[in-house]
Specification:
Blueprint: H1 12-21, H2 23-33, E1 36-40, H3 51-56, H4 58-68, E2 71-75, H5 79-92, H6 97-104, H7 108-114, E3 128-131, E4 138-141, H8 153-160, H9 164-172, H10 177-187
Antiparallel strand pairs: 1-2, 3-4
Length: 188
């Protein structure tokens, strides 16, 4: 199950294409024409051999030409918006911030900020099909297996001596007991 969510904050002409034709067309538009200049002809001058028609299809190209035709546009890649969109999709599908950050090469703090307003729609992380922000192709991500650490008796006594904030970080998986032990040995 992969939940859908509209892409937010697409830059420049990508936002116009998204408004006219939807998210999928905007992603394909960015993949084909991103990081270059594109002349969109007026509707009456649009031909079947135009790159816009060949990349998006006649119907989408005609719609875009009818609204945006007659101008030259610097097309942004939209990678930032699409990468952040993918982080939100993964969070809705039950993924935790750290695996999202690793999968998408984002900082965990960025993932936390982007997904702060979202609650996962499912409790267990689900495999998700995402769109590559560079090439527009679909790819599937499978959640990493959850790693539950077995806490030994001496670890329990070590944890109980720690401040509540550090215990919460261990429980959330942000820190390990080994990390805390290394910090403890450096302090002494």
């Amino acid at each position: 199950m992969s939940l859908r969510l509209p892409i937010r904050n697409l830059p420049g002409v990508l936002a116009d294409v998204q408004r006219l034709c939807g998210d999928d067309t905007a992603v394909r538009f960015a993949a084909h024409f991103g990081d270059r200049t594109l002349h969109i002809p007026q509707l009456s001058r649009l031909r079947d051999d135009h790159p816009l028609v060949m990349a998006l299809g006649r119907r989408a190209a005609r719609l875009i030409a009818s609204q945006l035709g007659g101008n030259e546009y610097r097309v942004p890649t939209g990678r930032w918006s699409m990468s952040h969109h993918n982080a939100r999709i993964l969070r809705l599908n039950g993924w935790q911030p750290r695996p999202i950050a690793r999968a998408l090469a984002l900082h965990k703090g960025t993932v936390d900020r982007l997904t702060a307003d979202l609650q996962p729609a499912v409790s267990d992380p689900q495999p998700v099909t995402l769109t590559c922000p560079c090439c527009g192709r679909a790819y599937k991500l499978t959640p990493p297996p959850e790693q539950k650490e077995m806490v030994a008796e001496d670890d329990t006594s070590f944890l109980s001596a720690l401040p509540p904030l550090l215990r919460a970080a261990v429980a959330a998986g942000d820190l390990t007991i080994d990390d805390l032990r290394r910090l403890e040995t450096r302090r002494t």
